[in-house]
């Protein structure tokens, strides 16, 4: 049996984003893995999600939502120090659409 506290000892804090260590400790408490093992699992999952997004593939997490990468168009911006106009190049961003379970639908 693990000496980690129960999952209820890790309250969900809706007021701020959760850190990777928080997720690792919660995973350890819920699964019985050690913190080191659960940290490796969390790292592997986040790395896999990041690689898929960089490759341009959407990521679907059931019960959470979808993270589709979307291209942006080039636009004009202003350099704050000199007020010169400059072109901000096109790039990719990650959008998020929540699952129905999160939106109440």
What does this structure look like?
The N and C termini lie far apart (39 Å). The strands form three sheets. Strands 1-2-7 form a three-stranded antiparallel sheet. Strands 3-6 form a two-stranded antiparallel ribbon. A hairpin with a 6-residue loop joins strand 4 (75-78) and strand 5. 34% of the residues lie in helices and 21% in strands. With 105 residues, it is an alpha+beta fold. It has a single domain (7-103), classed as HU Protein, Chain A (Irregular), CATH 4.10.520. Helix 1 (20-31) packs across helix 2 (35-54). It contains three helices and seven strands. The protein has helices at residues 20-31, 35-54, 100-103, and strands spanning 59-61, 65-67, 69-71, 75-78, 85-88, 92-94, 97-98. It holds the Pfam family Bac_DNA_binding. InterPro entries: Hist_DNA-bd (IPR000119), IHF-like_DNA-bd_dom_sf (IPR010992). This is DNA-binding protein HU-beta. GO terms for molecular function: DNA binding.
């Amino acid at each position: 049996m693990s000496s980690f506290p129960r999952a209820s000892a890790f309250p969900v804090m809706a007021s701020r984003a959760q850190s990777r260590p928080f997720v690792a400790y919660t995973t350890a408490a819920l699964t019985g893995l050690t913190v080191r093992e659960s940290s490796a699992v969390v790292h592997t999952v986040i790395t896999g999600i990041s690689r898929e997004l960089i490759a341009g593939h959407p990521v679907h997490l059931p019960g959470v939502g979808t993270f589709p990468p979307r291209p942006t168009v080039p636009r004009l911006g202003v350099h704050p120090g000199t007020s010169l106009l400059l072109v901000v190049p096109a790039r990719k961003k990650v959008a998020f659409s929540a699952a129905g379970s999160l939106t109440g639908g």
